Amino acid sequence: MLVASCFMRNPFTPSFGAPPPSLVGRADLVADFGDALDDGPGAPGRATIYTGARGVGKTVMLNEAEAQARSRGWLVISETATPGLVDRLTGEHLPRLLREHGENGGTKRRLSGITAVGIGGVNWITTDSPPPAVSLRHQIEELTDALAEHETGLLITVDEIHRKLTDDLRALGAIVQHAFREERELAFVAAGLPASISDLLNDDVLTFLRRADRHSLGAVPLDEVAQAIREPIEGTGRSIADADCRTAAEATNGYPFLIQLVGYHIWRQNRTESVVSTGDVEVGVAAARRRIGSLVLEPSLAGISDVDRSFLVAMSQDDGPSRIGQIAVRLGVDGTYASQYRLRLIDAELIASVGHGMLDFTMPYLREYLREHAAALGLPRHS
Ligand SMILES: Nc1ncnc2c1ncn2[C@@H]1O[C@H](COP(=O)(O)OP(=O)(O)OP(=O)(O)O)[C@@H](O)[C@H]1O
Ligand SMILES: [Mg+2]
């Protein structure tokens, strides 16, 4: 039977940062952040960091945290850790919010707070402009003072935090910490890849980040995944059998990006048919598997060193978990040396310890990808 879905949009969202049609397995975390906003200054969750592998849903969690804040009437500044972060806060976001919500329209301090603004293509700097960190503190204080009168607050989110931006994050962290001490209605949520976060946490000056509530996002439960594949399909007037839905869910390994990628490719097969068939699921899963490499695995491997990659290739020879001693033998290195690779790769959340001396991949299809691409990655192909 045909359905009128020729022009219906595919309900799945396999692109980074896109809100999924149904959010799987994160309800508790979202509620925890909402509680931290309700619990008032001093709630540990008011400084939160989400970390995890590529495509695990960090940006989506920042969006959810922002929605929690907005639903309580809070203001939100949503930023990414790119150069000029503090300047954007002091020169754009905070002046705009002060204009809209500050006392006296924020005029007095806004002027002295702006350090560089483009007007008609001309950049000017006020003669008595304080350094950005001082402006940042004043502006945040002024805004949170004004918001306190309405019993709301300010949430600042920063996506993709990493070491290159240590100075800006340090300045922002110090001010947020100070605001916490003064019991201001302020919350800070950041997200970043595990290796970037641990780099930052090793910087002594970033004690603030070290004290933040850190959540490592991982795979989500498969029964919830099946539901998250079924509902969007049914929402477009089509149906899928239980067994096919389970097969699709299993193919995702509970990895959020794959939920969207698998769903997307299953849905687009024979899109005008009212039933998603077993054949559609098989073809859709295969299409998703072919794409996961270039979309997620390749970028994840690009961020690590050649020696770390050769460790992964050595692991990919096993059909299941690998024994660390055996990997050392394959690589021709001693155990201590192999343990150092191991730690770095666990830190990057590409592999995990699964029992005494045993390691396994965390990302679905990484083993298969490494086997297929060992030569292209410039590494010895496994025997
Ligand atoms: N809990 C979830 N349930 C269903 N789909 C999800 C979930 N979290 C994320 N997704 C989907 O997974 C994809 C990747 O999400 P997101 O961009 O948030 O990942 P990320 O961890 O920020 O990745 P990166 O490290 O590359 O920035 C998106 O298509 C999103 O819709
Ligand atoms: Mg992201």
UniProtKB/TrEMBL annotation:
Gene3D superfamilies the record matches: P-loop containing nucleotide triphosphate hydrolases (3.40.50.300)
InterPro entries: AAA_16, P-loop_NTPase
Coiled-coil regions listed: none
Domain Orc1-like AAA ATPase: from-to ranges: 23-180
Protein name per the record: Orc1-like AAA ATPase domain-containing protein
Organism, scientific name: Rhodococcus wratislaviensis NBRC 100605
Species lineage: Bacteria, Bacillati, Actinomycetota, Actinomycetes, Mycobacteriales
